[in-house]
Write a structure and sequence with these properties.
Blueprint: E1 2-13, E2 16-27, E3 31-36, H1 42-50, E4 57-62, H2 71-76, E5 77-80, H3 92-102, H4 108-117, H5 131-145, E6 149-153, H6 161-177, E7 181-186, H7 189-192, E8 198-203, E9 206-212, H8 213-218, E10 220-226, H9 227-233, E11 239-245, E12 249-255, H10 260-268, E13 272-275, H11 278-285, H12 294-297
Parallel strand pairs: 3-7, 3-8, 5-6, 6-7
Antiparallel strand pairs: 1-2, 1-4, 8-9, 10-12, 10-13, 11-12
Bound molecules: adenosine-5'-triphosphate (ATP).
Length: 298
Amino acid sequence: MNVVMCNRVSKVYGKKKAVNECSFTIKENKITGLIGRNGAGKTTLLKIIAGFIHETAGEVHVFSEKPFNNLKVSANRIYLDDQINFSNSLTLKDILQSAGTFYQNWDQGLADRLFQYFSFDPKQSHQNLSKGMKSTFNMILGIAARCPLTIFDEPTTGMDASVRKDFYRALLKDYLDHPRTIILSSHLLNEIEDLIEDVLLIKDGETRLHMSVENLKEYAIAFNGKTEDVLDFVRNKDILFQKRIGIDHIYAVVENHLKDSEKENARSKGIEIVSVASDDLCTYLTSKTIGGIDDVFN
Ligand SMILES: Nc1ncnc2c1ncn2[C@@H]1O[C@H](COP(=O)(O)OP(=O)(O)OP(=O)(O)O)[C@@H](O)[C@H]1O
């Protein structure tokens, strides 16, 4: 079953198209990583899916309903980001307790154990938490709520490395016992690569790619060798990224549609064929130029 369906969804703020005709579906009980650069439209897209803001054009369905101001959708999803605010009169313990009355699948025992593990003070107010501690507290809410649709918008903002690791591990462990549909946005694929099943990559508000992490690993291939030989070899191919190495060498990345015979041909010319890390590939696919920052200096 599709939990999220977006068909040519756009969101315009004044003259800015934050989301531009995005189309994709997210199936039930999958963890999807929404990856994109700063300003790519991740938050806008997630807020549309959560039902906080209305799309300008296109069609969005969440649990087969239009999400904006929809009770069924809001009862079945949780959206967490670092902007979340709670009343100052509530302590952290109060917030956890009231969450239990709000979310049908709430696991108070798990929330309490995570709360203790991360050494929170039950009497503290949410407002006075540090940035990283706010994110950690949000994580507890997001995991213990066990909502059928769980949306984390850049959940690890401010977290230190060990808390980040703990977060991903806790989320994965709980997901394996209680599968649900989870969307996590991030700038960095490598951090969440082991956790997610699918990658939804957006660039300038448009869907650039939507596929499994497994397929993403095979999506591109790189050639490393003498500039003349490599450029000759990739002449009729779309170059996703290229970088000059030294005086007469180049590294060029193209989509991986190569036949074995072509690979052999490249090798026979002394060109090295190397795989491309998924994280690097996402950077190349969302870059404004095929040379990246080097183009500024060339
Ligand atoms: N309320 C708003 N009014 C005007 N422009 C907005 C508004 N919200 C977002 N934008 C613009 O829409 C674009 C997409 O913003 P969005 O916050 O969705 O990106 P993002 O991918 O989440 O970015 P980041 O990774 O930096 O948080 C940006 O150019 C941003 O300036």
